[in-house]
Amino acid sequence: MRYRFERLWRQLSAPSAPTELPPELTTEMTGRPLPVIWLLGKTGAGKSTLVRALTGLPEVVVGNGFAPCTRASMQFDFPQAHPLMRFLDTRGLGEAGYDPADDLALCQRASHLILVVARLDDPVQGEVADMLATLRRRQGKLSALVVHTGADLLGDAQERFRARARTQALFDKAAGAPLRQVELSLPNVDPIPAEAVQPLTALLDEMMPEVALALAREEYRAGEPARWATNRAEVLWYAGAAGTADVAPVVGAVAVPGVQAAMLRALAARYGVEWTRARFYEFAAALGTGAALRYGASYGLRQLAKLIPVFGQTAGAAAAGTISFAATYALGRAAAAYLHGISEGQAVTPGTIRTLYKGALAQGRHDAS
After folding, report:
1. What's the pLDDT at 181?
2. Which residues make Cβ contacts (< 8 Å) with residue 317, sequence separation at least 6?
3. What is the pTM of this model?
């Protein structure tokens, strides 16, 4: 156990050690394909509002954050500093003179999930259905989810049920199979509370868990969870870097501790705390022997597995990346709680640190795999 922590401490305490990743790993992360959600729907269907609700960002940030990628399509990377996912939005659908050719080519090539967005008070959805039918002919089975927005615009429950059934039947026919669906009412407030999209995030957790993890919002007004919520995306980015580094044979043994040390330095700067040897080993003790032994034992085995021909290039490498992602995410979550306690002059409870570490480790392993 002490060897693992000593190695991490050497990386953390190195003179002029950076918070940035090595250039070669930064390049690898920049070129890494992001999970992409294609927002397919007419102008005014509520796509930008849906992005605001999912990300928790204010209207002005989302409005200014979309960048053009075709003549009619825009993309929005989230979080913008260290992107973990991307939204694609087709903005010309339903408008005169719109040619879907470029959008179809881009989204067919790049998207991993289609969110079909339709307002319940707009029964004219033929062009959206035509796009779905075209995609089905090109791709076969579609990975798509229908989001019926504007549930608050139709006050009568029966009218709302009929509108939803009519639109859903149209999309199901175009897709050639029943599509999963959700109905939302998005309030006109800024920011939009997370509970407004909870039914959608629950489905995303099943269909694209890595996206659900990136979009997870912890709604707390103050205290440690609120500060963690502001730093969570950065920890996820470092976790992704650790997972990327650990896919190649041997490289992970060198790169992963460096990534974790960079993350711990970045977190310390965020919380206005300096890592000292005494603090680092207090944190290590709070994590407990069990956490270190689980991490240490699996670490050596996964490096060895990557060297086995064929197996190491597939299952071994994938398992290594998953474990490094999860371990780095869990380390970041526990460190954030520890650093918050130090910055506020509060007592740090080892039981709390261990509970947070174990919970984040389990969540990271589930979503990375």
Report:
1. 96
2. 247, 248, 249, 306
3. 0.65
